[in-house]
Amino acid sequence: MGPRIFSIGAGSRDKRKADQILNSSGHRWNWEPKTAPKYSEIMSGTQQVARPLVRSLRQATSTTATCQSRPMVAAIRQFSSTPSRSDEPTTTTPAGSDAQKLAADAAVLVQKKASEITAIKQGSEEELAKLLSPELGSRRRRAAIATTGDIPFEQLPYQCFQEARKVLAKDREEKIAKIKAELARIKRIEQTDASTYRGGEVFKQKRLESLRKHVEELKIQADINDPVVKRRFEDGHGDMNKPIYRYLADNKWRSMDYKIITQRIHQFNIVPDILPKFDPTMDVKMTFRGYKAPPGTILDSLITESPPNLRMQVFNSGERLLSVVVMDSDVPNPETDSYGRRLHFMVTNIPWSPTSTSLNLHRLNSKANSESPQGGLPEDGTLAIPWLPPTAQKGSPYHRLSVFVLEHNNNQPLDLGKLKEMYGGREGFSLKSFRDKFDLNPVGFTLFRSVWDEHTAEVMARHGIPGADVEFKQPRVHSLKPPRKARGWEAKRQKPKYKSLWKYSKRIKGLKY
Fold first, then answer.
1. CA angle centred on 202, ends 199 and 205, rounded to 5°
2. For residue range 81-121, what is the model confidence (pLDDT) as tens digits?
3. How does strand 440-450 pair with strand 358-360?
4. 448 near 370, Cβ under 8 Å?
5. HSE (CB half, 13 Å, CA atoms) of 26?
6. How far is CA 174 from the centre of its chain?
7. CA gap 325, 435 in Å, rounded
């Protein structure tokens, strides 16, 4: 055991006591006066171990940012299916064309400007956005893309990454072999006569539908773990005609947006006020003049004066026809002391596919064309009922403006003349009746709210909407209890002598004795 070092004050008494201890024990002492401990003395063991490593990393960063002309030397390990042993000499550069390609990539990294590297590591979000678009992902990912050169993602020089891609490629080949076998089985069943089955044609079609569904699941499993597919989807470059990208988009939507819209449906009593039951299966987002309106938000009357734009995404394959309905379910009716419903907008026969993304309702409303000049269906649908700006009278509660997207069963187009005849009056619109009469299926939903604001009267006057001078007030509810007999102070002062105080006890507006 080595000598112990203590720090003792410089007082004479303490010094004499220390001399006695020194003479008796023979240890060496430090007579410097006691001071505050240094930071290195109170650091934890982990901090003391990591401090040299952090210092070396800071020096390497400053060297990279300041020295532009210094060549970059990187030890690059050659691809191998087995790990290298300690007794084998490791190669620092690969042979052949791989060495030339990696050397060129390293040269590209060296030629990057120091200002760009500094901006990536120390700059703000605005400075980083000048180099790479924020659509690429998080700040860390964009910084990594900016500093890795032009190496393709699938050719990154990481041995574990390349070995994992080989395993995934082998698994994908097995899934493709299963898909081919199932497709051959489907073709064989289609060529077989339905009379050979016990259930006849119904059993045959049910069997084919089950096999086709299984093939779609195998297609998803073949690419679900591919990092290139996931990267392309995160970058927004996925082909929605392929099942894997529709599957990933559906999972992303159900992770948060589906939960929010389902919560709004129950929070604002859309079920059962408008429909007895409803579960959305497609993503619908709404924007007014570039403003993204979250579901259930309260919007100004000037913003909702023109119809919105819808961004819709379906997650199943195939073409379909859609109808969009905007309705107000909180129209006050003073005569019956209740609330009615009003149709604000309707467009129908909208062709839609998984690759379709945006529907411009403002352009449809401005054109107001009911038929296509070529005689077929219009590209963006057919306008049945033009846009009526949502308004709310002063004093009335907020109005729920619901936007429903309905899918046509069997892709049957709707008769425009019949729609105008039935719903041209707008008042008393029932979505449930509309769904049942025309064989429609509600698949998408969003909503916003409207209240009386400083611009409502102006919007109502501009579009000829009556009711701007109407103000609703809560009726006064009088007590149903019988008059209370006067007691105490009130009973004592009922005589004419205290007539000046009757205004506090008898002459109360609305009360009779």
1. 120
2. 444 444 444 444 444 455 455 445 444 444 444 344 444 44
3. unpaired
4. no
5. 1
6. 35
7. 11
pLDDT of residue 7: 40
> Between the CA of residue 219 and those of 174, 226, 317, 454, 461, what are the distances in Å?
11, 12, 13, 56, 57
Burial 351-380 (b: 16+ CB within 10 A, else e): bbebebeebebeebbeeeeeeeeeeebbeb
Q: How far is CA 464 from the centre of its chain?
A: 38
d(CA 123, CA 359) in angstroms, rounded, equals: 38
Amino acid at 473: K
Please state whether the peptide bond connecting residue 272 to the residue before it is cis, i.e. omega within 30 degrees of 0.
yes
pTM above 0.70, yes or no: no
**Which class for 309: exposed (0-12), middle (13-18), buried (19 or more C-beta within 10 A)?**
middle
Axis-axis angle for helices 257-267, 243-255 (nearest 10): 50
Look at the chain and count its residues: 513
> Residue holding tokens 């410089």?
10
Distance, CA of 356 to CA of 47 (rounded, Å): 55
**What are the pLDDT digits (tens) for 350-385?**
999 999 999 999 888 887 644 444 444 566 789 999
